[in-house]
Structure formats: structure tokens, C-alpha cells
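In the laboratory, one determines a bound structure by crystallizing the protein with its ligand and collecting diffraction data. In a computational setting the workflow is compressed into a single prediction: the sequence and the ligand go in, and a structural description comes out. We illustrate the idea with FE2/S2 (inorganic) cluster.
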Amino acid sequence: MQEILKQYESVNEADVKNWFEVGNVSDFPENSGACIKYKSKQIAVYNFTRTAKWYACQNLCPHKMEMVLSLGMIGDKGGIPKVACPMHKKNFSLEDGSNLAGEDLKIATYPVKIKNGIVYIGFSD
Ligand code: FES
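The predicted complex, in C-alpha cell form:
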């Protein structure tokens, strides 16, 4: 299972090598998540309409290695956009992937870009 986790590493916008097209804006639910596949990775994508921002992170929850984060409730904690894992409700920042309770669990996050109504996620591989 650790092998699966290893393929997920956060990507900064400056390091993007491939803006991968994942669909039209209208393909994604508002204020909740969806899951896309890139190579062997499952990536959760969230459309926050209140702030008009999009976020992407690994779909794999590092707590019990469940592919579930795209099904989690999204919201914010003190202004930080976050997702709560649907299994045991651990909360992760969608900005830097940190666990918001300070636990030693982290998720990879990826930049999202919208251009002409198309959603792209940035990868470095
Ligand atoms: S599997 Fe995600 S919080 Fe436990």
C-alpha cells in the first residue's frame, strides 16, 4: 500500500509539465467532488462555487488507504479550503495537503486551471 501512496506528490504550478484536460466545467458537480484518472493516479477534483476556486488532490486517504476523498464533504476552516474524508472525518487542507488537526498525515495537491470552460490539472510527470 505504501507503494501506491508514493506516486502522489504535490505539484506546484511552476513545476507543471503537463496540463491534463479532464473535462468541461459543466461535467463537474458544484460544491462537491469528482474523481478523474491520470496514468495510475486517482485524483479528486473540487469546484468551490462560493469562492469560484477549484482544487485537486489525491483521491487516496492516507489514514486507511481508502480511495474516497472525492466523496468527502468540502468546506473551509478559518478560511482554508478543506475536504473531510467520508470514512473517519479527517480534514485536509486543499491548499497544502496538511492534516488540519496537526496529525502526521498529508495528501498531495495539484494545480487546477480553467480555460475556455475546460478544466485542466497540472502534473509534473
Ligand atoms: S480512511 Fe480517511 S479518515 Fe480514515
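The pocket of FE2/S2 (inorganic) cluster is lined by residues 61, 63-64, 66, 85, 87-88, 90 (CB under 6 Å). Keep in mind that any predicted model is a hypothesis to be tested, not a measurement.
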